[in-house]
Specification:
The chain is of the alpha/beta class. 36% of the residues lie in helices and 24% in strands. The chain is built from 22 helices and 25 strands.
């Protein structure tokens, strides 16, 4: 609901914009949500108001019964408890675990005719944050999100709090578009808003003030990257927030009317900042200077590297820029050595799978390949494998693009195609260096595949990765490249298929009701029967996402004599997969469903990450 306070009177004469009625009911154990800006365009003119403010249109208990969240008997029981405790009905119901926080939020949205917003995924505009003082935002559990058109989107956790709308509207002359968010997600957004966004806000104001004093020229961005420039503070804040969010990548994207900053956290992108479009080129120039890149060339894609220390953590940041329709887009790959996993026991393999894999990698020769999409943790698995076999008695060498983490006892070669150092060339050079174990970062072409297989056949232990959906399809990927089946069968020890799946946040995990579609998938896929499913409901610790950290999901296909026979005769994928399962391979799907049964993750996350029937 969009509201505006006339300038001549504080808190009176409020004007309500047209808007939409009831919010969507819970879906997949949560609530259907909208983007922050959607709350602005939702008609609510039909909702009765006092002075234009949202007011309740029904009883909360009756709404919950109508939604099917509770029964009449449960409501009566809760009302008795409420009379005894003098607490509000919603609090009583949630504390008694009769409803979930999502169900309460959805019901409150219906009661007040507001939209439910995905606060955890909403952009935070530094300029908009100033609409509410931090102390008041924390007191009211309300957070300004962004501005679209003439209205500022403000999410509240509890629309039933007496006087909340009057207090917020009384703070500003802006038109306010109210919406409802999960309490934990709103509180987490407040933390983000008044730390990262507020810090950036001051720098943005200084930057815009300086820019307004100059005529716009092509040299403005370059001139604005001195050590004391506001853009330096903004870039430092972006990097610091990325480290604190445990982000693997940072995307800085010019959008035409603004610059969007998103962090990839546990495999999913989350918008963390919205900056003025006028800062776009200054941001890129600052990052290019840090990465020793060409700040004048804005058309060609460029790559660079930044080594820095943030919050006591040594970081290796890989920088990639490319030109888009609105300017240069920048992606930062954040490699935090302190968070790297180099121990097989920390990867998430089930004990029986880890034991089998540990036995396989004791072989003095042969080839082990990790298969999966980009970002599935293949390199981490290879590094952990190297650490398991490395010793002073063997010569371990790698060829990578690029070298992501350095090890003092391993000889690592970085790809440099302009200098002629490709995977195949690097691998040939390694074979002349008396290696015992070789890591090839990725098999991209038939030439590299042939050299790697030949190395495995001539007494070397070879580790590598390949892009394939699972372990069985990886074998056919080699055949599709043109590798002879008898060479593949003779050299391959095992193929590891893997994914990374998000863990439920341990701070806010609780019961939920999966959607009918999710439940049907779980049963059809052979999931272990459960009375109660668990998920994270969103809190400050997980930035309102419900997930914190990731765990590996693995399947290990061991190439036995029977499997070699199938490979040699180029058997179909289904036949290879059936034999692998008969011989003890636990498929990715089954491993993931086990994590659901153990309340480590959710059905929706399994579908998003794997979905292999």
């Amino acid at each position: 609901m969009a509201l505006r306070r006339p300038k001549q009177q504080r808190g009176a004469g409020l004007v309500a914009a047209d808007g939409e009625g009831p919010a969507a009911l819970p879906d997949e154990g949560a609530i259907a949500v909208a983007d922050a800006t959607e709350a602005i365009a939702v008609p609510v003119a039909s909702i009765p108001t006092i002075d234009g403010l949202p007011t309740p249109t029904g009883l909360l208990g009756e709404i919950l019964v109508e939604q099917g969240a509770i029964t009449d008997a449960a409501l009566e029981e809760a009302l008795v408890r409420q009379q005894e405790s003098r607490e509000r009905l919603g609090t009583v119901l949630v504390e008694a675990e009769l409803i979930t926080p999502e169900q309460l939020t959805a019901a409150l949205a219906v009661q007040y005719g507001l939209k439910v917003v995905a606060v955890a995924k909403a952009a935070l505009d530094p300029a908009v944050v100033r609409v509410l003082p931090e102390e008041l935002a924390r007191e009211l559990h309300a957070v300004p999100l962004s501005k679209a058109g003439a209205a500022v989107a403000v999410a509240v956790a509890d629309p039933a709090r007496p006087g909340i709308f009057e207090e917020i509207v009384g703070q500003t002359d802006e038109t306010i578009a109210f919406s409802v968010g999960l309490p934990e997600a709103v509180d987490a957004a407040i933390e983000r808003a008044y730390h990262t966004s507020a810090a950036v806000s001051d720098a943005v104001k200084v930057f815009e003030a300086r820019a307004s004093e100059r005529a716009p020229t092509a040299t403005v961005a370059v001139a604005d990257v001195d050590a004391n420039a506001p853009v330096v503070q903004v870039v430092n804040t972006i990097l610091t927030q990325a480290v604190r969010d445990r982000a693997s990548d940072v995307h800085i994207e010019p959008m035409g009317d603004r610059v969007r900053v998103r962090n990839r956290i546990d495999g999913a992108l989350h918008e963390v900042l919205s900056l003025p479009q006028g800062m776009a080129q200054a941001l890129v120039s600052r990052i290019k200077i840090m990465a020793d890149m060409n700040i004048v060339d804005r058309r060609r894609p460029q790559d660079g590297q930044i080594e820095t220390v943030i919050d006591g953590n040594e970081l290796d940041i890989r920088v990639s820029t490319t030109s888009t329709q609105y300017g240069e887009k920048t992606v930062l790959r954040v490699l935090d050595k302190a968070r790297a996993l180099y121990d097989l026991s920390t990867l998430g393999m089930p004990p029986e799978t880890e034991e089998m894999y540990a036995d396989l990698i004791r072989s003095p020769y042969g080839m082990v390949v990790c298969a999966g999409p980009t970002g599935s943790g293949k390199t981490t698995t290879l590094y952990a494998t190297l650490m398991a076999i490395n010793s002073d008695e063997i010569n371990v060498m790698t060829v990578e693009d690029p070298v992501e983490y350095t090890f003092p006892t391993i000889n690592q070669i970085s790809i440099h195609e302009q200098a002629g150092v490709t995977f195949s060339a690097g691998l040939r050079a390694i074979l002349r260096q008396d290696p015992d174990a070789i890591l090839v970062g990725e098999i991209r072409d038939v030439e590299t595949a042939r050299i790697a297989i030949q190395a495995a056949l001539t007494g070397h232990f070879v580790l590598s990765t390949i892009h394939a959906t699972d372990a069985t399809s990886a074998l056919h990927r080699f055949l599709d490249m043109g590798i002879e089946s008898f060479l593949l069968a003779s050299s391959m020890l095992a193929v590891v298929g893997q994914r990374l799946i998000r863990r439920n946040c341990t701070e806010c995990v609780g019961p939920y009701e999966p959607s009918a579609e999710d439940q049907a998938f779980y049963e059809r896929a052979g999931g272990k029967p459960k009375d109660t499913f668990m998920k994270g409901h969103g809190c400050e610790a997980c930035s309102g996402t419900g997930y914190s950290g990731r765990i590996g999901v693995y399947e290990v296909l061991q190439v036995t004599d029977e499997m070699r026979d199938l490979v040699v005769r180029n058997a179909p994928v289904d036949e290879i997969r059936k034999l692998a399962i008969d011989q003890g391979m636990v498929p990715l799907r089954d491993q993931a469903l086990r994590l659901v049964a153990e309340d480590v993750t959710t059905i929706a996350e399994v579908i998003r990450t794997i979905y292999i029937l």
